[in-house]
């Protein structure tokens, strides 16, 4: 018990250090937006008799993806024989707020399932340790689209068919394909949240504008291809063709913003992820609001300018270091 308390205390200190790195101003903008967006989605799901059962699966999936990407699993395995029990307790605590929210809507079964499923992620191996699966699974994406190759191997490869099955199951209502598109966007958010090494950027980049054009073309092309079944289900359902076109433009615009945000704050992974979360949160809160198109135009223009500026600075520093 004492070792568990020490572990949880250490994790709390690491979380506090991460929050300090994010900064007070960024936190003041990020936390209210993300909490409001997640709360809105949770309230909609909790009130739906079927969607409430998707919440435990989504929480367990996110916890499992987070667990498999942890860098300290090997260290914990060699230094603490009972580390998986500690991880199970930690993941149960992570899922507890969601379970409490579901219980507030009297969704007792979904709340209990949320707390019961999340700790099982502690039994999964680290993603990088599963070398056989990596070599056996050949990616259907070009190696140049490395975000898609690595991201789908880390969990997106099984998430897409599961989401498609759920969307087909609930295709009669826009909520099914719409929720699948939202979760798929979160999967892409994880794919584009990790900056590649500077050496890869230098090899691929000619000019910042050409590099961004290529990254946007690959990213949005694959995003449109993988989201096409969900768009089709929306179009043949109550949303209709016009509503589906609006959703598709909105969704692909968010994918473009995620890509631009990655290079606007490259190579700081913390700033990239927090700003991407802020972008998605604001988009979900202000969708259908009259001020949203104005904010979207300002965000696109600012991120295009900042990403080119940042890439120009990074490439310039890389060239100087090579010359010296």
TrEMBL record:
The keyword Transmembrane applies. Keywords: Membrane, Transmembrane, Transmembrane helix. It comes from the Bacteria. The lineage of its organism: Bacteria, Pseudomonadati, Bacteroidota, Cytophagia, Cytophagales. The keyword Transmembrane helix applies. The chain crosses the membrane at residues 21-44, 50-66, 86-104, 110-127, 148-169, 181-204, 216-235, 241-265, 277-305. This is Uncharacterized protein.
